[in-house]
Amino acid sequence: MVFRDRTSLFLRLRGEARAYDAARRVATQKQQRQRSALRVGGHEYSAVSQGQGSRRDHHDAHNDDFLIEMDSLESDGRSGSGGDPLDSTGDAAPEWVRTCDELRADMSHVREQIAQLQALHNVHLLPGFGEEDKLIEEENINQLAGEITRSLRTSEQKVKRLGGLYLAPNSSGRSDVVDGHAPASDDERASRAILESVQKSFGAQLQVLSMQFRTAQKEYLKQLQGQKAVLGIGVDAEEQERALRHTQTVFLDDTSTQFRETDFVTVQAVEHDTGEEYVQQRAREIDKVVHSINDLAYLMKDLSNLVEVQGTILDRVDYNVLAVRESTQNAVKELRRAERHHRKRHGVSCIICLTLACGVMALILVFKWLF
Amino acid sequence: MAHHDSVRNALRTLIRGAPGLKALVVDRDTAATLGLVEPYSQLMSEEVCHVEVLVAQPAGARQLLHLHAIVLVRPTEQNVALLCAELAAPRFRDYQLCFANVLRRLAVEQLAEADVHERVVSLRESFLDFLPLRKSLVSLGDPLGSLDRAVDGVLALMVMRRRIPQVRYDRNSAACRNLAERLAVKFDQESSLFQDGTSDAMNAGTGIVGSRAPLLLILDRVEDPVTPLLNQWTYEAMIHELLGIQNNTVSLKGSMDVKDEFEQVVLDAESDEFFARNMFSNFGDLGANLKELVDNFSSQRPDAQGHVRDLDDMLRLVEELPEFRRSSSNVTKHVLLTSELSRRVDSGSLLRVSQLEQDLACRESEAEHRKQVLQICSAPGIALKDKVRVVLLFALRYEQSPTCNLSELKIALQRAAAGSASEDVAFVDLVAGIRRYAGAAKRHGDVFSNRSFLAKAATSMRRGIHGIENIYTQHEPLLAQTLDDLLRARLSYETYPVIYEGSGGALHASGAFSGASAQTLGSARGAALSGPPPRADAHTDRVVPRDIVVMMVGGCCYEEYRTVSGINGVAGAVMVESGHTASAAQVARSLQAHVVLASSHVLNSSMFLEQVRRVAQQ
User: Fold this and answer.
1) Using CB atoms within 10 A as the burial measure, which of A157, A319, B371, B545 is most buried?
2) CB under 8 Å, gap of 24 or more: what pairs does B468-472 form?
């Protein structure tokens, strides 16, 4: 909404500052070289003095002693730094980042597909002639629904896999080199937290998508049913079945899908063999039960506490950031103190024990010497 | 709603502007603003996977090179220094810097110099430098009420509204004058910020029509020391008075036996429909409404519909479960809050205290009041703080009465304080302090309506004719009267002079007046003057602005917010049918005017007493 962009001013100033720095550095280096060349001939010494000198110079010039640190970092780490930071991280990008990119691509694809599907639904629901056209449309719809189901499932697996990649960013890459001395536990916790929120973020998006898909399909079915009812035609059970199956097997495990498939086949077989009215009815009822169970399984799996959290303190950013931070800091402090306490007590008791033991031994010695 | 939404929109624009996985770096103030407008889950779905507070990082802190950082902080020197350090040893892939207010050029230079790795992608200023607590209530989250913070906050608020306002202030208050002068300079300096705000399309979403400059009216708390001293009986105000609302959250810690889950609860009118409907209901109505809510809830409990018979039932049950759990926690929250309020009311005999308080605020009867105040002071079971408040009210009301002798009351208070908790004892000395803070000499308005014979007569007439609907909510804050005068174009330009003419000015007067009530039309004849006010009566011709921002120096109260909401036409917010609020609301409706209340912080009586003590000590 209301922004004032000051990037151009910033960029200009930064350019000036860099140019100034560069000029300054060149000048000081030249000076150094001259001075050290004048002063000493020894290689080692000149190098050292140059380093120190330039450090002092920088300090005097800008009162920024970090500049030097950065210089060294630049020279040892990144080639062509100051350009695109992507270069430096491109190779070492941990797997989860790649997975995220994939997921993002997948999701936008699915989003498109769902839009497409809805368009197809609308077309199909329009009254029209030509039985064959209708059939082709149905075929298309089913195919698309199947594709969406598949991509949703793979996406879900990817999200799950994200959880397993906790330590991936630690395994390689130069980030390790830079902060090798940072406490590992903190690192791990931080990266885990980030991964978790990434997982949640994608999970939520995925959930929204699958919900969207599901409702689209349900809506379509309902309208189809309504249409057929109006026309006096019984709902094409098989068609309904097919559409439903796609919506429902989205998040089912493979085994249950197979079970569903075989179940369906046997139902069909029975239906075919006897051809009796009531068996058909039975079959349909069994189908209904299976649908319900599938729906239930799906829902159970999908049931997230996202809705519950909304509107409570847990969903407040400031609370999350500030309060949690404070409480963790306090907890850490307490733990430290407890640990110190603990150790001290150990030490003290140890000393007391040993002193006592020494005393006893001394007594024994004395007694032994006396008698 | 306007500022709430514009803050949210600005935030979303900011977040969506960055690609890929994002980290958000905030400071304490912006975190609070963020918390008010955007839920965490929403941030998460925008691929913000890391939120942190800008602090000095230890050497060798972890690098998060795969995250794009969005930095949203106030442009304080400390923050700029921290950012410089951060940029010198960058942890994120790149940085989008966004400051919540105007950034000085010097700071831009510092940042430019520090950015040796050239990780900064953009540098922007957005104007989120305030806390949009409610629809028309803005706080700056600054209980000390510093002038600089107020200037920054009001500037940001006005930039968000895209208009340079006309500024009027209370002439008798030095604090108001200072703020007004500083703001006038600021508006001149930063006029470029407002330049894109002239098209009406931008205002379509904010509900502000026309191109007249809004009005910024700067008032002082000192004018009305009564409102924050009263016990409140509407839901929101009560919660703040008895439990304390901070940034729309209430801590229930230490009260009764609450589960961890409910130790801190959120009171947000956006996500909590019951609260939105009932924040202005009085305590009695609230009880009834709450009962209805509980009844409704228990009837929609899934298992109340009979046994789960088949899978469809179970399916429905599971489908409804999250929603059900959510409304369950909402119901629990309100039941807890209400029962805690009711417990405190009973234990402190607050009904009795409040009756006297309201009477003191609204009616003149010195001898009778003195007797009652003495009774309250000696009564057991009433908290010392409440006794102090009653005495303070008495001292304020009868300050200029020749027979007013407070020594008796002070002795009574000291006797009561002898056996009381140590914390509140300090308040006993405030009897002199309150006069120094907000005595009659400091006030020019007529908060008790007892300065002139006419005002007295009018008050007693009104009371006689209309009667009193509810003795616990008969008081109306002075703000209602001020706004009523303002909306009816009666507010004196002598006591509330114009210090700054806003953009647009009064030139549109004749055209924009079709919607005004006949009464106001009579007083507004054609074009008005512009420029600083040379003489008071020349300004009676002025137009009433439709977009009004009231800045209360020294804190506002939820009762005043209720008044403002009432004027804005929120149903149920008007308590006194024949009062100033109702009358102002009527004009506001015909003018389509909208009032926003802004202040450095929202007061309750404890905070106010503390503030009085601080000022009196200086």
Assistant:
1) B545
2) B469/B575, B469/B576, B469/B577, B470/B233, B470/B282, B470/B575, B471/B355, B471/B358, B471/B359, B472/B231, B472/B233, B472/B282, B472/B351, B472/B354, B472/B355, B472/B358
